[in-house]
Amino acid sequence: xxxxxxxxxxILAAVAGGALSPSAAAGRLRSGEVRYLDEFAVLDLGRRAxxxxxxxxxxxxxxxxxxxxICETLLALSERVVVSAPSPEVVAELRRALSPTPxxxxxxxxxxxxxxxARSGGRAGAISAGTSDLPVLEEAVAVARExxxxxxxxxxxxxxxxxxxxRPLEELRGFDPDCLxxxxxxxxxxxxxxxxxxxxxxxxLPTSTGYGLGGDGTAAILGMLQTCSPGLSVVNVDNGVxxxxxxxxxxxxxxxxxxxxxxxxxxxxGPG
Length: 272
Prior knowledge:
By secondary structure, the protein is of the alpha/beta class. It has helices at 6-16, 22-30, 47-51, 64-75, 88-98, 134-146, 166-175, 190-195, 218-225, 240-264; strands at residues 34-37, 41-44, 57-58, 80-84, 103-106, 109-113, 123-128, 150-154, 179-184, 202-206, 232-234. It is built from ten helices and eleven strands. Strand 7, helix 6 and strand 8 form a beta-alpha-beta unit. It starts with 5 loop residues before the first helix and ends in an 8-residue tail after the last helix.
């Protein structure tokens, strides 16, 4: 593993020596610490602290060696890293270069590293219209879980058999999610249907699943964008990372509000 960035060493030394307060150090980290890797990458190491979203490595278009070096650097500073859309060659290089770092599949992504993130208290539901939509939805779930959100998932409940949606909606009422992610290809109708039935924000996730004209996700995204169901927002085709991050930001903000209300109402005992 590479050494910690020089800037981070300086910040930690200043805190240890009393020259910098912990709050001031956190502010400096949130302001945008970066790490340069030769001439091919500039890593935003302060993103998680600044806005709650980790830097996800998008593998497509990068060489296997570049992806491995980026992941190695990120793992020196965090326990896990999400790699989006890696090819089999990239996965093989990650296993070789980063062994024995654990790796698990998450739909069209892989998650490198051990352990689980601390729970934030946020809750999200995840629904796929068809089994073919699962790889993209599972990527969204992986990102949301990496941001501390509890996720309850249901699969293959699309509009071709709309009665299949009854049980997931009943279970979700008990789970009480702060937000839903709904993935659909083909004509992309399911997010509109779900948004018409629930009282929480819905993130529509169009997928490139379908036949012929429009089967590349064009029909799905246009159908979602033309929805008449209020409360539905839409990310781009196959953008599981964006859907997961958006849903997690909503859920974590809601969880923060619940914590504040609980403390303000005196439900939790005070110190001592």
